[in-house]
Design goal:
Helix content is about 40%, strand content about 15%. It comes from Thiomicrorhabdus immobilis.
Length: about 425
């Protein structure tokens, strides 16, 4: 069990704000707040931050969560790509959860972050906060793992089970619920002690560091989350991969890179240089996954709290023979990786997420979604110019997955259960 504790304790050690005097209980409470961060952030008065002034300098200030979703930003910093563009970049700041990262970005402490895709949707259209998506942070990079104690081999067997998710507003929740409904199951949100009908699956929020220990202790039956916590579950908790999300939705986005409107609209040269560095970071991560896994790990540059063997598995282990029981990779012909890095933010994926989010069960008020004009959001939320310029400049299109060489800026979404 000490290895499982290591997941949480090492996260605490790396966190720049962690105070050992607070002890484990306080850290767990902080982690719980982090996992439910987007729900908590719904109450943040972001309009109160709107008039705060950006620092006059043009230093790149990155805020990130310690997950592989942040790889492109972290690699760009580690490899000096920002400096290559003539920019100064501070050491990226590790943040525990989405809520404090949102607050830091809203307060203009950070000018470059990665957010779950629904976060900027909420910020811009529910709270009228001027945020722009400027690229994807990665593609794929998540999965649904089950405990060996469950005997589950397919989605249909998840009836009556308890499944943990990291946040309500996430690709994870969207894909999971689509898969459950396809299997004839009903997602519900209720107290874990309340009885479930045979066709019901109870969803609950849980901090990612707590997921592997909870699975090992049989407090939950499964969880769906970003890497490297699936790999940690496999290595440390005996979890079994039921299905990779990238094998359900081909080359799906999860986290996106975001910047402030005032930079995107008014500091065009600076914004272009930032995206040049990010795109180079994404390409380097795609082409050097083993090196990057070690670089990000705590044996490397310590951007992530996980050991190198866990991060390496999270970034590279996608061999069908390793995942035949259960059959977690049904579409080997898709040619996707466990995690990949195509930074172009395809409009079709944004449309898919918004449309499906409207039909996804979440806790809290979702009224702001009902009146969203999807086609308007696709054009208004995302800046496509800087990332396209960078991908053209560094000839990235034919080096990242999911690109149609005849029409590289458009694609068809492939979702197959």
């Amino acid at each position: 069990m000490c290895q499982l504790c290591d997941i949480t304790e090492e996260s605490a050690k790396v966190d720049y704000k962690f105070n050992p005097a607070k002890g484990r209980r306080e850290f767990i409470l902080d982690s719980m707040a982090a996992a439910g961060g987007l729900t908590a952030a719904m109450s943040l008065p972001l309009d109160a931050f709107a008039n705060m002034e950006m620092p006059e300098d043009e230093v790149v200030r990155i805020g990130y969560l310690p997950i592989t979703d942040a790889s492109a930003l972290l690699v760009a910093h580690a490899m000096g790509f920002f400096e290559d563009e003539g920019l100064k970049a501070e050491k990226p700041t590790l943040i525990r959860g989405w809520s404090p990262l949102i607050e830091g970005f809203a307060a203009k402490k950070f000018n470059l972050v990665h957010f779950l895709k629904p976060i900027p949707i909420w910020m811009r259209y529910n709270n009228k906060f001027p945020v722009k998506i400027t690229s994807w942070a990665h593609t794929n990079g998540s999965g649904l793992v089950v405990g060996k104690h469950t005997g589950v081999e397919k989605f249909e067997q998840l009836g009556g089970k308890q499944i943990a998710i990291p946040y309500w507003y996430s690709m994870h929740n969207i894909v999971l619920q689509m898969a459950l409904k396809n299997a004839g199951l009903e997602p519900v949100i209720q107290d874990q002690t309340d009885p479930l009908k045979p066709n019901q699956v109870n969803l609950q929020i849980m901090p990612p560091p707590d997921m592997p220990p909870a699975l090992a202790a049989k407090k939950i039956d499964a969880y769906i989350v970003a890497e490297p916590f699936n790999a940690a579950g496999e290595v440390l908790a005996g979890a079994k991969m039921l299905r990779f999300t990238g094998d359900v939705w081909k080359n799906h986005p999860c986290c996106v890179v975001c910047m402030h409107d005032e930079h995107v609209d008014k500091k065009k040269e600076w914004s272009q240089k930032v995206m040049n560095a990010v795109v180079r970071g994404a390409l380097y991560a795609q082409e050097h996954k083993e090196e990057v896994a070690h670089m990000l790990s705590r044996e490397g540059k310590k951007y992530l709290p996980m050991k190198a063997k866990v991060v390496l598995k999270a970034m590279t282990d996608y061999a069908p023979e390793h995942y035949a029981d259960p059959d977690a990779i049904k579409h080997e012909d898709w040619g996707v990786g466990r995690i990949d890095f195509n930074p172009y933010p395809y409009p079709s994926a944004t449309k898919f997420i918004i449309d499906e989010l409207k039909d996804t069960l979440v806790a809290g008020n979702t009224n702001f979604l009902k009146d969203l004009d999807t086609d308007f959001v696709v054009k208004d939320l995302v800046n496509y110019e800087y990332v396209k310029n960078a991908m053209d400049k560094y000839q990235v299109w034919d080096k990242v997955p999911g690109v149609n060489p005849n029409n590289p800026t458009e694609r068809e979404e492939v979702f197959v259960l």
